[in-house]
Structure formats: structure tokens, C-alpha cells
Amino acid sequence: MRSLLFVPGDSQKKLEKAFGAGADVVIVDLEDSIAPQNKALARDTAARFITEQWHQTKSAIYVRVNDLSTGLTDDDLAALVPAGPDGIMLPKSNSGQDVQHLSAKLRVHEAENDLPDGAIKILPIITETAAGVLAAATYANVGARLVGVTWGAEDLSAAVGARAARDENGRYTDVFRFARTMTVLAAGAAEVAAIDTIFPNFRDMAAFEAECAEAERDGFTGKMAIHPTQVPVINTAFTPSTEAVKHSAALVAAFEAAGNPGVVGIDGKMYDRPHLRLAERLLARARAAGIST
Ligand code: COA
Ligand code: MG
After folding, report:
1. pLDDT tens track for 119-139
2. Shared domain check, 268 and 135
């Protein structure tokens, strides 16, 4: 799960484009990109499109439903689960309890649609409310549906009354860096994927590339996109390089050859267990991206 491309669920034309964009995941949106009066239309359009076209794309298909406080979530699920999405994105999640709540709902919908129990995964956005940011630790042990956690700055700005999320140099201010940090830590604690948030200036590819590189450096394993042109940039940034794969494979081999000790020396440098763990994680990511290791 490197690239996750958002597409408004009420646009047949954009849905077609999104399915061919080469994203690991397409997130069909029923929430903030859909006007309140268009929710029903978006459900119908999205459900019909996914049902008819899912086999035409290699992307996994997730649906972003409206959050649990809106009263719209049940109708979203009733309309979309029959289309057989791979996962549900839960916005404005306040804690791990919200994931469990959604999980209970999904269980019923899966049973009603003859889908295996647990077939549909959950990806919550965990920083869209102030309470959500503070509850980041509660996503550990919420169950096997949790595939990852991600974050968002727009709704958090509104929640805390911040006039801007970034300073004059384009760097996130403290509240937002904290939310971003909590996302990486929550993912680490829950042992799921850490997915970085969107970058809204979709014409500024240089800044986008820089943000992808920083996210990959900091432990994120994927990033959300709002425009098809962002997808290949994300896929490149989050695919381990040939050198990194070679180095990690050599490190794993060196530990094996030495009888799996605590520490080895390679080319005059010390490597211990955390280095081994990091190398194994990188190789797993490479394999998930289709690279043989
Ligand atoms: N998925 C699929 N197709 C998309 C797309 C997306 N996310 N974003 C743009 N496109 C299509 C456009 O429809 C256009 O198609 P066309 O050439 O057939 O007309 C083409 O890509 C080029 O788009 P462009 O003109 O550069 O942008 P735009 O002004 O049409 O759209 C946005 C800009 C922001 C409205 C659009 O990118 C978008 O809807 N993004 C997703 C928004 C969203 O889902 N937000 C919720 C999560 S934050
Ligand atoms: Mg939002």
C-alpha cells in the first residue's frame, strides 16, 4: 500500500481515470468531496461503478464513508458493501473504539452479503479531531481489520481553530507535526502501515516529491494522493531502491551466515538487532512492491 488515490464517488469520469491511474489503492470518497445533497447520488454512482468495473483495475478499492457521528455511515455501508470493497476508510475517528464500532457494523454487512467475516479492512484517519490525536495509542489491539492509520490536517485545523497548518516556509506548525508524529507512533504500536496525508497543491511536483521523500525517511510506508499525476511519484518514493534492497539483503545474509548473533561487522561498521529488523522491514516492503529479494 504505497499510493492511495482519492476520487469523488459522484464522478463517473474521475472514477474511470482513477481506476487506470496505477495506484495501489483507489479511495472512493463519499465524505468531504461530496456535497450534502449529493450523498445518495454518490452512493449509487460509486456502487454501480465498482460493481461493474472492479475487475478492470489492479488497484485495491477502499470507500471513505461519512464519519460515525453523521448518521450517514449505515446507509453508506448498506449501499457499498454489496459492491465488495477491499476496505473502508473511516474519517474523523476519535479512538480505537470507533474502529471496533465500525468493525461490528461491517460484520453484519458481511454476513448479509455472504462475504467472509473480516474480509473488509479498515483504515482510519486518526487526527481529524483533537480527541482523536490524543487517543492515538488506542489503535493497538483493535483487531485484524486495521490495515494502517493515516492523518489529515484540514479537519484538525477547524477542530482547534488554527488559521493555517503550515508556516511561511511551508513547514507544518507544531500541532500538525505532533499529529503526523502520533500517526507514525500509532502505526508502530499497532504494527500496521503508516500512511502520510495528502498534498493539496497538485501542480507543485517538486514540493510534492520532497514531501514524499521526507515521509519515507520518517517511517511512513505510503501516501495519499488527490490527483492521478501524484501516483507515480508516490510509487517511486515508497519503493525501496535497488541499493537499499541489496544492502538489506546483504545484512540479513551476514546475520544468517554468522549464526544469527546479536551483532555483526560489515565493511568496518557495526550492525545489531535493530538494524536487522529495519532490513527485514525494508525487504518486506520491497516484496510487497513486486521486487524479488
Ligand atoms: N481521480 C481521477 N481523475 C482525476 C482526479 C482524481 N482524483 N483528479 C483529477 N482527475 C482528472 C480530471 O477529471 C481531468 O480529467 P480530463 O482530462 O478527462 O478532464 C484530469 O484528471 C486532469 O485534471 P486537472 O484538470 O488537472 O484537475 P481538475 O481541476 O479537473 O481537478 C480536483 C482538481 C482537485 C478537483 C481533482 O483533482 C479532485 O477531484 N481530486 C480528488 C478530490 C478528493 O477526492 N478529495 C477528498 C480527499 S481530500
Ligand atoms: Mg475531511
Report:
1. 999 999 999 999 999 999 999
2. no
